[in-house]
Amino acid sequence: MNCKITRSAAKVLEKELALEENQGLKVRVKVEFTHAGLVQYALGLDDPSEDDVIVATDKGIEVLMERAEPLLDGVKIDYLYVPNEGFFITNPSKGTTGD
Fold first, then answer.
1. What is the CA radius of gyration of the chain?
2. Residues 6+ apart with CB under 8 A from 7
3. Scanning 20, 31, 40, 41, which has its CA 20 to 30 A from the CA of 3?
4. Residues of the chain where predicted confidence (pLDDT) is lower than 50
């Protein structure tokens, strides 16, 4: 599996991971499907499970992904400041976007 994190997203994630209450947790990306069958990505902090693969990124942040979910392979995590501040997750290799 493959995951890319932009520099701006890495800065925000590193701050969150450094908080005392988040010690030992990893970044998790998961896929959720809407009622219309559209793909939506979700981002959070979590502990690894036996169904996960831990993906190392070039920013030194490890990302948890469900091993059996092909739509996670190739995701890109970005952090945008406009029009609304927050994470933006896409998968250019699959042609899917989410937030």
1. 13
2. 59
3. 20
4. 99
